[in-house]
Amino acid sequence: MPQTLTISSPTLSVAIATTGAELMSLQDTAGREWLWQGDPASWARRAPMLFPVVGRCGGGGVRHEGRFYPMASGHGYAPTSDFAVLAADGSSCTLRLDPSEETRAHFPFDMRLDVAFSVAGTTLTQVATVTNVGPTVGVASVGFHPGFQWPLPPAADRPQTDHVVQFEKAETAPIRRIVASRLTVATFPNEIEVRTLRLRPDLFAADAMVFDRPASRSVWFGVPGLPGVRADFPDCPQLGLWMRPGARYLCIEPWQGYHCPEDFDGDVMDKPGMVRLEPGARYSRTMRMTIGAPQPA
Q1: Which pTM does this prediction carry?
Q2: Domain ranges within the chain, ordered by starting residue
Q3: pLDDT(234) > 70
Q4: Fold of the domain built from segment(s) 4-293
């Protein structure tokens, strides 16, 4: 039965739903909520796990060896699936999604997803491990999708436009956009001033900003001079930033994989960003979220 687990440190309380292995709350000692709490008028989710694909695929599903596997929603079936609880204590928990007859109707490979959460101080670490438990070579992607309050709690009375995303390194590569649920082949200016992206809602009028080859593996989100959120993604090769104009959240999304490019209609085995796994093989991707982090120098 779906449930909500709570883990904590002396300085951070975290709630996690077993449906979707989804973060539901990130509260500091003052009781301030840093995670977006969902709103059906804009975006009802909070922080779903993306698996076994990241983004939408052409035609609303994937193809393999001449067969079509429908996937009605973007980002795979994990966001609406119920995970089993493998382990849980006061500061950590691990959830598991095994393949089933239901998942095989939407994806051709038997991939297991384990999501481990642990909290220490003001940092939540989330590790997603994908394992091929099937008898054949397969592929899978995985991604993180947390939405944060925008404005953040320390700047609740400040306009959204006072906030920035500061990158670990200078980002000079152009970005890509999502058009008609596909990743554009064309690139667009990234509007980053060396390391700083000055946020404004209209940046997302054309959907997400997709960094398909970011130099950074860490970003900071907040108002300069005030505590913010630091997001580290040491082994995720792609990054998305997203919100719906008019809403009050910002999603910081480290990915292994991305939407189908607009020029791709092939077998899912060849979809860019997918990781190929032999039977029994596995890989992991990590995201760390530090709440109340100072702005990096």
Answers
A1: 0.96
A2: 4-293
A3: yes
A4: Beta-galactosidase; Chain A, domain 5 (2.70.98)
